[in-house]
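Need tokens for this chain, all 66 residues.
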Amino acid sequence: MKNTLKVERAKLDMTQQQLADVVGVSRQTINSIEAGGYTPSTILALKISGVFKLSVNQIFLLEDDD
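Here are the structure tokens for all 66 residues:
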């Protein structure tokens, strides 16, 4: 699964720590999601999409092998 999390954070000039604080996870979790090493739960994906006021599908993109 690919994601545009880093790009969306940059648009809001938001750090990983700031996003982590808003959605209630660690900075390491945000880092791992951005790097593609961790797939967020549905609840976390919805919280993240709410921060950016985008749909989950606009941030998280399925790849052919998903």
